[in-house]
Amino acid sequence: MKKNDEQSLSFLGLGIMGKPMAKNLLKAGYSLNVHNRSQKPVDELKKQGAQKANTPKEAAENSNIIITMLPNSPDVESVVLGENGIIEGAKAGQIVIDMSSIEPLVSQRIAGELGKKGVEMLDAPVSGGEPGAIKGELAIMVGGKEKIFKKCLPIFNVLGKSAVLVGDVGAGGFAKLANQIIVAMNIAAVSEAFVLGQKAGLNPEKLFQAIRGGLAGSNVMDAKIPLITERNFHPGFKIKLHDKDIKNVLKTAADLQVPLPLTELIEQIMTSLLADGKGELDHGGMIRYFEKLAGVEVRTL
Amino acid sequence: MKKNDEQSLSFLGLGIMGKPMAKNLLKAGYSLNVHNRSQKPVDELKKQGAQKANTPKEAAENSNIIITMLPNSPDVESVVLGENGIIEGAKAGQIVIDMSSIEPLVSQRIAGELGKKGVEMLDAPVSGGEPGAIKGELAIMVGGKEKIFKKCLPIFNVLGKSAVLVGDVGAGGFAKLANQIIVAMNIAAVSEAFVLGQKAGLNPEKLFQAIRGGLAGSNVMDAKIPLITERNFHPGFKIKLHDKDIKNVLKTAADLQVPLPLTELIEQIMTSLLADGKGELDHGGMIRYFEKLAGVEVRTL
Questions:
Q1: A19 FRET partner, CA 20 to 30 A, in A33, B172, B179, B209?
Q2: What is chain B's mean pLDDT, rounded?
Q3: Dihedrals φ, ψ of A202, to 5°?
Q4: Residues 189-208, chain A, touching B (beta carbon < 8 A)
Q5: CA B187-B188-B192 angle, 5° bins
């Protein structure tokens, strides 16, 4: 990416995901205003050439495209629509890209408010976790207008290995929720299968080799079974964050009147894991719930 | 495979899976005795060079290796241990390969009975369905002694694209049950995710493209989503057969004291599908349960 002087960006939210994403934009030559609740990552980014914005409003006043990467729906609502929020500084023609994983119905409401001022919005949550953010290899699921998506594609190309426009605003978030349902349930699937196998005396590595090439094969199995058999639950993506996403799935599903019986049960399991102090583990650690039920650990015999 | 005169085989059970498997063994040059409850597939195989065995006992008297491919545990028990069963005709040193998908604890009991006469047994269930059986591309999960496995490997190489020795007798069946847990639950996972997406207004093909490359990707998603969006539920592998496997999972899990909360719920869902007359559909048709709950169909908008 060459420097694009027409696009001065702001990046709000320099957490585990946001900080490496902002760094990649700086490296790609973008001029970047940054804002974060705590000061330390702001100082780190300033050393690499970023300017500090004191408030989301100030960030919006000083850039054409404002990217947000925040924990959850209320944070995005507050940063965009709250006091000294983006909406107070934004002008018609500007673009807000929210890359947080939040309730898509909230994204749609926020986009509606911004739209009243002529400000465009994309919701663009990501998959790939901290490693994907660091390497600029996120999978980006985007909702919004095609014209705006195309305008922002150079930015997505810095941050991710793929960016797919799924539909209108909110569609990125719906796709992310669908993604998180599948990932959680596929982890539960290998958990139940491998716990049964272990109790039956199977070597989990041989079981893995016997079934991974068939219809049971999945990216979850390939990514998580080697870690599980080594008893490595270092995150990765924490159970407590996946739990946040599943809670957003269930809120959204209730709003849309979509019963999700298995996802409901997944949420009960995650709640139990949180109660058991396992929230900081990688989501592959979901297997610990099933192991506890059966009194066995999946490890090489 | 060249003809191996030392190995005269019997093949018992010429159903959807067994008939094409037997044909492949004939094509590979094996001398084959066949037996089946109904006469029609026996006649078909005879035209291709097979000999008819009137009973399992007679088959065992006339061959060194006896392969069974039968619907469920009681069928295998009856054909191996029942009146005029294999055990009445078998001699020490012979080998029974049961390729049916049955309860592994039943496989172990049958192997114990055969062992008293010095007859060896492998349990070797398969994955890949009718197309895999026809093409000789099954994935074969084998339990038994390594020496016996190696002796039978030329046969497995005719029938399948892979054969993995997972452990002692019963281990093949346990691996198959683990496989079937994962396949069923991964179908449920894409079902809940895509039904939510549909209700949210997403184009399922775009959703598929947006998430298939990430952690949510799976062989189930790649195999079933294109069929589902075309509303093609032609089997493939029928829901009623997958239901049989899940019932065997739950029986086995109860015997081994392994609680499987999600698989229990899958069984409730399959029971509802059977009650709704959907047992003959491909197991990708499990999505019909979730679609009915939400009042929507996953199809391209």
A1: B209
A2: 96
A3: -75, 145
A4: 189-190, 192-197, 199-203, 206-207
A5: 120
pLDDT of B284 above 90 = yes
A265·B263 Cβ contact <8 A: no
**Domains of chain A, each with CATH number or no CATH:** 5-168 (3.40.50.720), 175-294 (1.10.1040.10)
Confidence of residue B6 (pLDDT cuts 50, 70, 90): low
pLDDT at residue B104 is higher than 90: yes
B249: which chain A residues are within 8 Å (Cβ-Cβ)? 196
Report whether A56 contacts A85 (CB < 8 A): yes
Nearest CB neighbour to A213, from listed B139, B260, B265: B139
pLDDT in tens, B168-180: 999 999 999 999 9
* Cα dihedral B176/B180/B183/B186 (nearest 10): -130
**Ranges under pLDDT 70 in chain A:** 1-7
**B127 vs B100: CA distance, rounded Å:** 11
B244 pLDDT higher than 90: yes
Q: Which of A137, A195, A211 to mutate to test the interface with B (most CBs of B within 10 A)?
A: A211
B165 chain-A contacts, CB cut-off 8 A: 206
Residue of chain B nearest A251, judged by CA positions: B196
Residue A17 in tokens = 């995901």
The pLDDT score that the predictor gives to residue B301 is 77
Q: How far is CA A33 from the centre of its chain?
A: 22
